[in-house]
Amino acid sequence: ERQEVRPYNRQRLLVVANRLPVSAVRRGEDSWSLEISAGGLVSALLGVKEFEARWIGWAGVNVPDEVGQKALTKALAEKRCIPVFLDEEIVHQYYNGYCNNILWPLFHYLGLPQEDRLATTRSFQSQFTAYKKANQMFADVVNEHYEEGDVVWCHDYHLMFLPKCLKEYNSKMKVGWFLHTPFPSSEIHRTLPSRSELLRSVLAADLVGFHTYDYARHFVSACTRILGLEGTPEGVEDQGRLTRVAAFPIGIDSERFIRALEVPDVIQHMKELKERFAGRKVMLGVDRLDMIKGIPQKILAFEKFLEENASWRDKVVLLQIAVPTRTDVSEYQKLTSQVHEIVGRINGRFGTLTQVPIHHLDRSLDFYALCALYAVTDVALVTSLRDGMNLVSYEFVACQEAKKGVLILSEFAGAAQSLGAGAILVNPWNITEVAASIGQALNMSAEEREKRHWHNFHHVKTHTAQEWAETFVSELNDTVIEAQLRISK
Ligand code: G6P
∠ CA 120-122-126 to the nearest 5 degrees? Predict the structure, then answer.
């Protein structure tokens, strides 16, 4: 049986995610430019190279006309990407609605919509219907491009319905599903009206993966408690069929970051940044502007630190890069105003005529600018209230070989389980504790910084995105073979 499987490096991989690694911007009737998309999923998937991979997903724009669709399909093909075209109504109901107003907050322990968010969610049923319809549209495109022997790897909370749709098309298809967010406690998941249907659809996959063991455990508990199925150390069993469930912690392409620091433009940029902030320690936050990232909490902790440590006021600066995201969802609009209000207040309070304590940017930086910034940073602050993994912490560590800066990391990020030995772990809700950690980080001895950095750097260098993908795909192949053997017995 084993010989039938092509070696992994020749096996085709169909990676299906709501968002393609590139997003399209229309320049003319039939011309498009492509930009790298934001977010952890994309930055990890970009690190996966040694596969013959095709990407299937949404390019982030509404393209109602055929001319535009044809031109975009062609432009994307050069990047090995295949578009799924979603119209405005579907995007509104499926992406803004069900995915980002319901599943995303729920999976990050922010609960189901209440009060004003409820008003936008009365249409829960129609959003769920749109969610299933969108997943079916993804399945159609996968099915059209599928060739026998391909591995189909579905990603994230947008596509929980996809494994079921794919198996309905072809029960022999090898289907894996991976969640990039936390999977919450089963007590949280059971509040979701469509809880059972989603679990059952995911279970149609052959292999289900999570970033941490805890998320996998929560998922198995949800299946046993809500569906009454049997949880085993291997996964979840339903009438003799096993869905394998396991943890596969993701990583980054660390070499890409390390190499970038040798590029002359990056070196020049680092020099400029050092001059610009001479005499001050640089603290850095890089996040999508999302409520799960705990940006207000981080800034309030920084304020408390300044309040209590007058001598540091002109010796430290916080650079917060907040990449706009999901701007059509009202919660995100409110968060933007809230953050602006807090930053303005603190800068008004502690700023001088010539400098301010917080530089807040509502935009993304290009890769080289980001690497330069990571490299000149003394203390990075990741204060997610919940986060599937958080690869910003990995990227920072990868760029710190020279400086050996300190990482302050939320214990609620998946990364806390891998970088906990080197980072200062904090509860982001405890502003007093985060403020104290800022002081600890700024005053840390060179020996301690070096020791902590070494732990994390070693981890980030050895646990790469490529290795993560290889492990998942080979486990998926093995799972399918084992299932065939079990049936033939
Ligand atoms: C997180 C999710 C990804 C998502 C990314 C950016 O990392 O896990 O699936 O692509 O955020 O969000 P967006 O809504 O812009 O795709």
Answer: 100
Q: Which amino acid is located at 142 in the chain? A: V
Distance from C-alpha of 487 to C-alpha of 117, rounded to nearest angstrom:
48
Are 274 and 317 in contact by the 8 Å Cβ rule? The answer is no
Distances (CA, A) of 161 to 37, 165, 177, 251, 421: 23, 7, 10, 26, 37
Residue 445 burial by Cβ neighbours in a 10 Å radius (0-12, 13-18, 19+): exposed
| pLDDT band for position 120 (cuts 50, 70, 90) | low
**Alpha-carbon distances of 400 from 70, 376, 448, 462, 463, rounded to whole Å:** 44, 8, 14, 16, 17
Q: Cα separation of 324 and 326, whole Å?
A: 7
**Contact call for residues 42 and 19 (beta carbons, < 8 A):** yes
- Which protein residue has the closest C-alpha to ligand 1 atom 12? 39
Residue nearest to atom 3 of ligand 1 (CA): 41
Q: Could you tell me which of 8, 41, 3 has the C-alpha nearest to residue 473? A: 8
pTM, two decimal places:
0.95
* Predicted confidence (pLDDT) per residue in 13-42, tens digit: 999 999 999 999 999 999 999 998 987 778
Q: Is the CB of 41 under 6 A from ligand 1?
A: yes
Report CA(41)–ligand 1 centroid distance (Å): 7
Strand order in the sheet with 235-238: 81-83, 52-58, 12-19, 151-155, 174-178, 207-210, 241-247, 235-238, 230-232
**Which atom of ligand 1 sits closest to the CA of residue 40?**
7
**Which residues are bridge partners to 210 per DSSP?**
247
Amino acid at 422: G
Share of the chain above pLDDT 70, in %: 96
Which of 325, 329, 387 maximizes ligand 1 atoms within 8 Å of its Cβ, making it the mutation to test the pocket?
325
- Ligand 1 nearest-atom number relative to CA 17: 9
How high is the pLDDT of residue 118? 62
pLDDT digits (tens, 9 = 90+) for 64-115: 999 999 999 999 999 999 999 999 999 999 999 999 999 999 999 998 877 5
